[in-house]
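User: Sorry, what's this?
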Amino acid sequence: MNIKRAIISVYDKTNLEDLASFLFRNGVEIICTEGTNKYLQEKGIPTVKMADYIGFPEILGGRVKSIDPKLAGGILAKSNNKQHEEDMINYNIKKIDMVVGNFPTFEEIAKKTKNEETLLENIDIGGYSLLRAAAKNYKDVVALVDPKDYQIVIDNLEDCGDVPLQLRRKLALKVFFSTSKYDASIHKIFSELFAAEKFDHEFFEILGNLRYGSNPMQEAILMKFLGKDTFIDYLENLTFHKKPTLRILKDIKLLFHLASFTNNEFLGFAKKGIFVFGYSSPTEEEKKQFVRIIKELKGGVVYSDDPNIITELKDSKHDGVMTSYNLEQREEIISFKPMVFKVNKKVLEQEEEYIVDGDLVVKQNFQEIALNLSPSEQLGFEIAKIHKSDTSVYVKNNLICCGNQSCLNREIALNALENTLERFEVLLKEGTIIFDSPINSEKITDAILNWQVEKVIVPPTLPGYEKYIKILEENGVTLLVTQRRYHRY
């Protein structure tokens, strides 16, 4: 085996025992810092303390323990360089073939303290430098920063006694990414602490290509925020031979959120990122009516927990169908015209959101509003929060309908709502209407009273518009005014 000597200094000890025991069994000399040495000794794996190896103790309270020419030279020496070979002989430097290291993310540390001195003490120097050196010299040294990669290295060493060059490159790139992320988080946290010039740092994981972006002429790459949960992590494309588009993903994201938000059976239709029509706990009759009408429509995504509905939509002209039901015969799904997505329901907490529009980037925070609503009203309220202003959502018993957002004003939003309900053969009468903006005209109050709407959920009114709220109250409409505005943008 080509690995003869390894340095191990890790914070995250996941899978470490497997790697270290494998190296020991194969005669590899393992050099460790104090903490890692203690951990492996307790596991019965002999190691050499780094202080003993370099002949110099840890000093300055542990600030200096792995900064030494014997370590750096052993890692950075190139095997095909005569000058390097001579220097190693002259200065008694032994070649190091593997460096295994990792450190806590700086965000983890910052969550525990904002004390400047404590934060400074937790900035890794030596282990960080050894890893970067190993990555720089990846042709001669295996650099390991991710415990998930230990097993593939073990497998390759067992199979051929070495780690292939392609894998070494991949591992080196992961080191450079990890150290760049580490530096970025240090800068971000200290710039906030010192109120200095601010630069926001975000890292993304590339998941693959989309069929296309906003239109068929655009290439698009799908990404997610690194280390953060997203609906895509709980979504399986059963029609894996097809790739979604941006528009399909916007519909999927909306329906995923609503389906995860309720424990009841959910049936819904979304198109162009807008929730159009659906039911919470639909009856069999409601399911039949929904499917009959929805089959006539093109595009959009349908969500259903009923496998019979999924089967009925096999030849529909929709972009996709979603379900949390475990479909048995997955081979048949390949023949579906719409894409089919299996959902593992999960309520995802989100504290902030990025809005990107060309060269405009906005980062905004979320503030949750808790209301005592029926399950259907709660789903309607979630839609009002997700949609862009102006929108209006209608809820009656277990029915939820919207079909509009970003209208010119609330009056037009109500007209669009009425038209959508008519398309689904539902008369707008009684029930609840949820607005995402204050009521600001008599046309709106007249429409609410004409439809005999029983309840209105609305954000706080603006100065001069109090009279419209009063009109509704005087006519017996139940009003629920929230503490603040809630639409996203």
Observations:
- The two ends are 59 Å apart (CA to CA).
